[in-house]
Target: Helix-turn-helix domain-containing protein
Amino acid sequence: MSELSTVLRAWRERTMPEEVGLPAIPGRRTPGLRREELAALATVSVDYIVRLEQGRARHPSAQTVAALARALRLTGEEVDHLYQVAGLASPSANVVPQHISPGVRRMVDRLGDVPLAVFTATWDIIHWNGLWAAISGDPAQRQGVDRNVVWRHFTDDFSDVSYDDVHHEEFSDDLVADLRAAHARYPDDRSLRDLVTRLRATSADFDARWGRVSMSVHKSSRKVMTTSAGPITIDCDVLTAPGSDLRIVVYTTVPNSQDEQRLELLRVVGTQTLV
Model:
């Protein structure tokens, strides 16, 4: 067996279901995660996990390795090793990190009763819970640049989100400022450079804001989400973890309100469409 198949199986078998937000099943004979559980967490096929562990697939993409590392909650050193045995260069300090540390994972798990998602410094979504998918649309149905908040904001304008003109201006400026700060911190990140180039060519609004070189920070905001349960007014807060560029976005509703009731309905039905 290859080193890749050996470490992948060992790390899968040591990862307990409850560590990754799955229910613990008494008496299960499989140590750690089942292959289908890891596949679901990393959004790859079960067959591909089998082939990796049997040594029949030896060259996963960097995107797949990053997804496996997040699903298995690897430490920084373990992430580097997984990249190396997969035949890939480890992410450098000059490239936007996509790894979610075990500590951030645990914090996210404990906030599971609210819509929540984790984003990189460039606003690529890399982790979300079921309630986030129910209220915002399932990110698993989007690929590539369509998972980036800045791209969608300036090219799609999030038709399912409503906010006043003042907030629209502030949010637009905040996103451009975030991307500029990331561009300065991670000069070797080709994907980031390509994103900025595409945005400037596609969106005159983004290009104008980029040229103004304004810096700003995110503030708490209130917006209305159009959902299958009806419109829901939510408060949006952006949290950060010490020593990390990750952004944790949390949605909450006013207690005992109609918005809270509609959010609770979404918790039950998930991403199903209500008739």
Notes: The domain at 3-85 is CATH 1.10.260.40 (434 Repressor (Amino-terminal Domain)). The chain has two domains: 3-85, 102-269. The chain has a mean pLDDT of 87. The longest strand covers residues 230-240.
